[in-house]
Amino acid sequence: MGHAMNRAARLAILIAATAGAVFLRSSAAPGELALSPIFGVGIPPDYRHWELVGVAHETGLDELRGIVGNAAAIEAYRAGTLPFPDGAILVKLAWKHVQSTEFEPAFVPGPATTVQVMVKDSIRYRSTGGWGFGRFIDGRPVDEAQHQTCFGCHAAGVKEHDFVFTRLAP
């Protein structure tokens, strides 16, 4: 049965990947997919190998953040291409901002807080500027109410930059 479940999970991954969905299997139960409500976006399994787009420090949240992009996103950034092409994916990792125990003036990432994902698919996410959103805590998507706020914030702040806040760091 375990082999069949793994096979079924692999088939679901292949089907979803072909349809443009991006996700990571949930750590909660084997074969269970962790997808965001509303958008059906998940955490790309290889995002930790992607290139750095930039970093952010949001004082109100007391977090350090690193933003990475897949090859399509990085190519668009370097070429100055807007809108981003379908298939571009951005992932923002956030950690608590804590003082280094080894070097007092420095701050380093502490406990992880969230992983946030933006997936460009101009057909599937037409009503949200071509972007699907996912926000995850401990690998699990947050509730639907939080996902309803994603596009509104991006539309209010960076509509002219294809709804993306992060710029490529020099």
From TrEMBL:
Domain Cytochrome P460 residue range list: 44-166
Span of the signal peptide: 1-28
InterPro entries attached to this UniProt entry: Cytochrome_P460 (IPR032033), Cytochrome_P460_sp (IPR038142)
Pfam families reported in the protein's UniProt record: Cytochrome_P460
Keywords on record: Signal
Protein name: Putative cytochrome P460
Organism expressing this protein natively: Bradyrhizobium oligotrophicum S58
Taxon lineage: Bacteria, Pseudomonadati, Pseudomonadota, Alphaproteobacteria, Hyphomicrobiales
